[in-house]
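Page 37, top half.
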Amino acid sequence: MIADAEQRRPVHPWWLLLVVPLCVLGVTSALLGFILERAYARETSAWVLQAHAQDAANLAIGLPVIAIAAWFAARGSLAAMCVMLGAIVNIVYAAVIYAFGVHFGPLFLLHVAILSVSTWSLVGGIAALDRERISAKMSTRPPPPWVGALIVGVAVLFTGLWLSQIVPANLAGRIPSELQEVGLATNPVHVLDLAYLLPLSYVAGVSLMLRR
């Protein structure tokens, strides 16, 4: 009983408190993205559509999930903390695209602020994870192997999709048509996925399949 109470003790570290300004900044940015015509005035129609889709996803899913999960994580829920950190990864991912893939405009400083707050919140949360509790849960209730296989399968599909756009264009000495549609020098989605998310997905998927 005492050990269980200690494991579920409330925590209010700095990185968890950053969820408050993160949600405020995120909601403000998403709403202004719809309201201000100047927000994406210099983007192509394809890129504006993707920006609005991300704004909508942040408002309807990403930010509410972070707020709710943070509430339970503050009360010692390990599962809620993991869900919250996963949702913050998505915000960091989107913030990098906004900061580097959207032309300079009225929301630039807001995008930089979101990138900063979300990154430090993620770093603090990962550093504070109780690895012993995670190991104990994995040993008593390991996820089925198909979970890891699904992660690897999705990573393989996206790796093939992005390389099918990049490699033929490089061999032909041309710019990928998908890149021309968004009007960017390079596609930040390709960069983030191929450099970070896809390698991490392979490591995570294989590790889960091996029940590590």
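Page 37, bottom half:
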Amino acid sequence: MNMLRSIFFGTKVTPDARCCGNCDHINNNPDVLEKQFRGMNILSSAHGSTRGDGGICRLHDQYLLPGHSCSEFKRRE
């Protein structure tokens, strides 16, 4: 079960990790997500915990989980 949870919702991100959860390119603001994915709040709000900490990468224009990473990583300030 924990493996499935990490696949769907990501894993806890350590502050020093070079991954999307710590990247400046990620926007995981719930209001932005609800605007981008119309109808997302039919069953629940993006403010809820069921979406995990995923967000939209402004660089790649993709929804990504916090544990993903790429060579374009830029530490969030």
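Margin note: The chain has two helices and three strands.
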